[in-house]
Amino acid sequence: MRILLFGRDGKVGTVLMAALTAAGLDAIGVEAGEAFDASGFDAAVDFTAPSAVLGNATATLAAGVSCVIGTTGLTEEALAELDRTARDNAVACFVAPNFALGAVLMMRFAAEAARSFPAAEIIELHANTKLDAPSGTANATAAGMGGNVPIHSVRLPGLIAHQEVILGGPGEILTIRHDTTSREAFVPGVLLALNRVRGLPPGLTFGLDALL
Ligand code: NAP
């Protein structure tokens, strides 16, 4: 498979570039400001920035190439535009706020626990270089819990991606915590998405849960 990787030199992109090559895929990286032609690629992956992802993905989808997007901070309007562009070009666009399996399970467990506890709050902690807050994972977790869950964002050097969902009830507290200790955590989810994206229906598919 020929893969176009947007964000080649970024923190995630560097790990992905090595992992895609190790998995036997032919990965070509693109960085900010570099010209690209998506035609002829089997799929594209984007781990860039909220301001860059829509331009990259629109051009890629318009070339009839499926996209796997990990970049967070996409608005509802941006997701709707990706859905429209993908449908118009009869290709799939897969977006996941978190490609780590443990994080997906955390979201599932939190959704289940929210049905039994009267109150909950989320603390999400990321590197100080992360541009968006709250994180896409925290927003997706809150939505899965029925919405209206306060989210607290911490941005500090030394962190990668961490989240605690704290649920409170009379006389008890339940804490569900996930820690990403290395960006290798995102690799299996991205490879799974790349293997599946061309078989997905045209338009937007959201969340790793949809592939598990
Ligand atoms: P990063 O270290 O800042 O890397 C982003 C890279 O993208 C940089 O090298 C940047 O170049 C490059 N870039 C910017 N605009 C571009 C463009 N138009 N075309 C191609 N490359 C471009 O950030 P990161 O930590 O790798 O994270 C990237 C994104 O993925 C963020 O939105 C983050 O929240 C998200 N993320 C998602 C997951 C998930 O599981 N879904 C996991 C981790 C991170 P410059 O530095 O020159 O601008």
Low-confidence stretches: none
User: What is the makeup of the main sheet?
Assistant: 6 strands, parallel
**Widest β-sheet, arrangement of strands:** 2-1-3-4-5-10
| Count of separate DSSP helical elements | 6
Number of strands: 10
Question: What compounds are bound to the protein?
Answer: NADP nicotinamide-adenine-dinucleotide phosphate
Order of helices and strands: EHEEHEHEHEHEEEHE
Gross geometry: globular
Q: Evaluate the radius of gyration.
A: 17 Å
- Secondary structure: helix percent: 25-40%
Category by helix and strand content: alpha/beta
Report the sheet-strand fraction. Answer: 25-35%
End-to-end separation:
22 Å
In short:
This protein is of the alpha/beta class. It contains six helices and ten strands, in the order βαββαβαβαβαβββαβ.
Model description:
Helix 2 (about 50-60) packs parallel to helix 3. The chain has helices at about 10-20, 50-60, 75-90, 100-115, 135-145, 185-195, and strands spanning about 1-5, 25-30, 45, 65-70, 90-95, 120-125, 150-155, 160-170, 170-180, 205. It is globular. The relative contact order is 0.17. By secondary structure, the chain is of the alpha/beta class. The mean pLDDT is about 95. The protein is built from 6 helices and 10 strands; from the N terminus they run E-H-E-E-H-E-H-E-H-E-H-E-E-E-H-E. It is about 35% helix and about 25% strand. It binds NADP nicotinamide-adenine-dinucleotide phosphate. NADP nicotinamide-adenine-dinucleotide phosphate (NAP) binds near residues 7, 9, 10, 30 and 97. NADP nicotinamide-adenine-dinucleotide phosphate binds near residues 47, 56 and 99.
